[in-house]
Design brief:
mainly alpha, ABC transporter involved in vitamin B12 uptake, BtuC, 11 helices, about 5% strand, globular
Length: about 290
C-alpha cells in the first residue's frame, strides 16, 4: 500500500462527501425545525435518483443539470407529506412520528419497486469518465462537480436561513415555535416550507449521486442510516455540523475501504459514531446536552 493510494482514497472520499453533506443538511433542517425524525429521508433520496435517471433516459438531461428539477419535484413531495401526514402528528409522541415516517418510507420504497423494478440503475453523465491527473493522483471530474454543487447549495441554504425574512422565521420557529406563533408567524406554513426544503436537499443529493453510484429501491434504508449517522456525529440540528460531518464520514469510509476491505467501509463510520457518543454525545458542533 502506497501513500498515493491512501491520498487517492482520501480525495475521493472528500469529494463524494458533498453528497453525504447535502443529504445530512436536509435531515438536520427538518429535525432542527420540527423535531421530526424523518425515517423516509433515504427513500426520498432514491426517488431523486430515479427522477434523474428518467430525465436522462427520456430527455437526455445530464444529472448535473436535472438535479434542479429533481430537487423541485422532491420539494413538492415533501410539502405533500408534511401537510397531509406529518402536520397531524407534530404534537404526538415521538414513537408515533417514527411509525408514521416508517410507513411513508415503506410506501416510497415499494412504489419505486413497482414502477422501476428491483434492478440496479445508474444515470449516465457526460462527465462520468472524465479525470484530471495531479501527479500520481487523479481527480474524478464528476465527483468534483458534485462537491462544488453540494457546497453551493449548502451555502445558498445558509444565506436563505440567515439573510431572508422567511429564513429568519424558520430559525425563530426552530428556536421557539410557540413564541413564533405569538408574534403572528404562520408556523404551519413555516413547517411546510422547512420540510420541503429538507426534502429538496436530499432530492438534489439523490440526483447527483445517481451519476456516481448505482442505486435501487432498497438503497433508501442504507442512505437513511448514513444520514442519521452523519447528523449525530455533526450535532443534531446543526447545519454546519451536518456538512462537515458528511465530509468526515465520507473520508473515513473511503479510507476504511482501502485500509480494511471495501465491504467493511461502513464499519469505520459506525466506530466514529460510537466514539462521538462516548466522548461528545451532543456531536462535534451540537450544543450542550441536558
Amino acid at each position: 500500500m502506497t501513500l498515493a493510494l491512501i491520498g487517492q482514497a482520501a480525495l475521493n472520499g472528500f469529494l463524494f462527501g458533498g453528497v453525504y453533506s447535502l443529504m445530512a443538511v436536509g435531515l438536520s433542517l427538518i429535525f432542527g425545525v420540527m423535531r421530526v425524525i424523518n425515517i423516509a429521508h433515504g427513500d426520498m433520496m432514491v426517488w431523486g435518483s430515479y427522477l434523474a435517471f428518467v430525465l436522462a433516459l427520456r430527455l437526455g438531461l445530464d444529472p448535473f443539470v436535472s438535479f434542479v428539477l429533481c430537487a423541485a419535484a422532491i420539494f413538492c413531495m415533501g410539502v405533500v407529506v408534511q401537510r397531509a401526514l406529518v402536520n397531524r402528528v407534530l404534537n404526538a409522541p415521538h414513537e408515533m412520528q417514527i411509525l408514521l415516517m416508517l410507513g411513508v418510507a415503506l410506501v416510497l420504497e415499494n412504489l419505486a419497486l413497482v414502477v422501476f423494478g428491483p434492478d440496479t440503475r445508474r444515470t449516465e453523465s457526460a462527465y462520468g469518465l472524465a479525470t484530471v491527473w495531479l501527479g500520481p493522483i487523479f481527480v474524478d471530474v464528476a465527483r468534483l462537480i458534485t462537491f462544488g454543487l453540494a457546497l453551493a447549495l449548502s451555502c445558498a441554504l445558509y444565506l436563505f436561513l440567515f439573510r431572508s425574512d422567511l429564513g429568519k422565521l424558520i430559525r425563530a420557529a426552530a428556536d421557539n415555535g410557540y413564541g413564533a406563533l405569538v408574534i403572528g408567524a404562520d408556523v404551519e406554513r413555516i413547517y411546510m416550507v422547512a420540510f420541503g426544503i429538507g426534502a429538496a436537499c436530499v432530492g438534489a443529493a439523490g440526483a447527483l449521486m445517481s451519476a456516481l453510484l448505482p442505486f435501487s429501491p432498497a438503497t433508501g434504508f442504507a442512505q437513511t442510516v448514513t444520514s442519521f449517522n452523519i447528523v449525530i456525529i455533526g450535532g443534531m440540528g446543526s447545519l454546519l455540523g451536518a456538512f462537515l460531518g458528511g465530509l468526515l464520514v465520507a473520508v473515513a469510509e473511503s479510507l476504511g475501504a482501502v485500509l480494511l476491505v471495501p465491504s467493511l467501509k461502513e464499519l469505520v463510520g459506525f466506530v466514529l459514531l460510537v466514539l462521538i457518543l462516548l466522548f461528545r454525545p451532543q456531536g462535534l458542533f451540537g450544543g450542550k446536552t441536558t
